[in-house]
TrEMBL record:
Species of provenance: Funneliformis caledonium
Entry protein name: 17570_t:CDS:1
Source organism, top-level taxon: Eukaryota
């Protein structure tokens, strides 16, 4: 249960981070930016903001 709660907490933090990153410094079309990397034991979580050509 704790691991699931941690995943939900991480998802909320990443979602909040993506919102503020996109709002403050939009990447140009067809670019991406790495928002965060978190290593927890044997797991690696990578958060990426991607903007494609159609957006």
């Amino acid at each position: 249960q704790k691991e699931r709660d941690d995943q939900v907490k991480l998802w909320r933090e990443v979602k909040d981070g993506m919102y503020w990153t996109r709002k403050s410094c939009k990447p140009d079309k067809d670019e991406f930016g790495i928002i965060g990397i978190q290593i927890a034991g044997k797991k690696l979580y990578l958060s990426v903001l991607i903007r494609d050509m159609s957006e």
